[in-house]
Specification:
alpha/beta; 9-stranded mixed sheet; 9 helices; globular; binds beta-D-galactopyranuronic acid
Length: 424
């Protein structure tokens, strides 16, 4: 009951803040548009081989997404270091090994640290692992009393018992329903999670988080083609992977990066910028994630850039209410991840994220996977609810709202085990 009330309050707050926009939820009002062909380059040349994709088409598309959508990382770190803060051989009722690792990033004599919480199946010596950010602190994903509470800025949330932007004991375990830890461990996988606010606080302030480390004297915001928060979070995913390369209990060749919603957008960009991942999962990532922007269904570029001005690079604002001018669309973001397998998931009541647009992206990215002899999505008809397609591009749509459920995790574990064969 309490949860229901919280959801209604949240829904009310969301609909209030988006009331100024004209949001389309009708298929008949989707504008006519041409889906940009991933296999024709900007000069009009046809791409027919994986070599031409890698050498000719991918670089120009990557450059576009980097400079016009998410923003470039403005240089290299000076150093990165790792420190074991805590570990236990007896976590989750003896099922798992737990580690908490502090990662410190240094640039221009300034530093930032974040903590990776890791659970690994005890039986295995080198595990495949899912890596995903959480929204409200590592301690929110489990009731495990040993999980360290982050001191970073957090969004106030009545449902999560957070006020004054501080995380406390009062939100421990409150998001455990989104993290099927037991199923993940029983499926033979580890789980690593990071509080995303430790990499870049999710507020329209580009003077904090990782951004600030890279500024020259007097600089207060990134250049127009430099990283917004999504790109910073994607960078953080890669730095966690840098740590995994040093941990003998984790199989670095078998890391699947996962993200829900805004963090699904970040996971997709991480998959495009870092080809070391074994798989990429976008859970309900919507606008600026898996959904085709040109459909203008649910959340649009103008809405997202207005509500969250710090997520994308400043150049992206040029496409506010101007999707027709975009020479790319989000299926090409998925294509940039090829040949790494991807999983796009939608929820039927999450129309804000445009499930059909997410599906069509997966479908239109498929020709690029086919160049690598990998099967994507064959038909342009959406599958029925709870009828997952598990290929090199995987897709499912489930019942229910914008969320991460046990059903989602069951599919990801199955895909990773049976299709990607990460446990062999
Ligand atoms: C919404 C936003 C979406 C999605 C979501 C989330 O408010 O409009 O793009 O990212 O937040 O991250 O939960």
């Amino acid at each position: 009951m309490k949860t229901l009330i919280h959801f209604s309050i949240l829904y009310f707050v969301c609909s209030m803040s988006f009331a100024q926009f004209d949001i389309n939820y009708e298929e008949s009002k989707v504008p006519e548009f041409t889906v940009p062909d991933p296999l024709t380059n900007f000069a009009g040349e046809k791409i027919t081989t994986s070599d031409d994709w890698i050498n000719k088409r991918r670089p120009e598309l990557f450059e576009f997404f980097e400079n016009k959508v998410y923003g470039k990382v403005p240089g290299d770190l000076d150093s990165i270091s790792f420190k074991l803060l805590e570990e236990s051989e007896n976590a989750l009722n003896g099922k798992a090994r737990r580690k908490q690792i502090e990662v410190t990033l240094v640039k221009n004599e300034k530093s930032i640290s974040f903590t990776i919480l890791i659970y690994l199946p005890k039986k295995s010596t080198s595990s495949p692992i899912f890596l995903g950010y959480n929204f409200f602190g590592n301690h929110s994903i489990t009731t495990d009393a040993n999980v360290i509470i982050s001191e970073a800025w957090a969004m106030n949330s009545e449902a999560m018992n957070i006020d004054e932007h501080r995380l406390t004991e009062a939100s421990r375990g409150l998001r455990s329903h989104r993290w099927a830890i037991e199923k993940i461990i029983d499926g033979g996988f580890g789980l690593a999670t990071i509080y995303y606010g430790e990499i870049d606080p999710d507020k329209n302030d580009l003077m904090d988080g990782l951004h600030e480390l890279f500024y020259e004297q007097g600089q207060e915001k990134p250049k127009n083609n430099e990283w917004g928060s999504l790109s910073v979070w994607a960078f953080g995913y890669s730095r966690a992977l840098d740590y995994f390369e040093k941990d003998k209990n984790i199989d670095t060749n078998k890391v699947v990066v996962f993200g829900h919603s805004r963090l699904g957008k970040a996971a997709l960009w991480a998959g495009a910028t870092d080809q070391r991942f074994a798989g990429v999962i976008s859970n309900d990532s919507g606008c600026g994630g898996a959904a085709l922007s040109k459909r203008r269904f649910g959340e649009t570029i103008n809405v997202i850039n207005t509500s969250f001005p710090h997520w994308f690079c400043l150049n992206f604002k040029r496409y506010n209410n101007n999707e027709e001018e975009l020479p790319v669309d989000q299926h090409q973001l998925l294509a940039l991840i090829a040949p790494t397998p991807i999983y796009v998931a939608s929820a039927i009541d999450d129309q804000w994220a445009d499930p059909k647009g997410e599906f069509l992206s997966a479908y239109h990215a498929s020709p690029v996977y086919e160049l690598f002899d990998m099967e994507g999505i064959a038909a342009n008809q959406m599958p029925e609810v709870h009828n997952p397609i598990h290929q090199s591009i995987a897709y499912h749509i489930r019942e229910g709202k914008h969320d991460v459920t046990d059903y989602d995790w069951e599919q990801y574990i199955k895909w990773a085990n049976e299709f990607l064969k990460l446990n062999q």
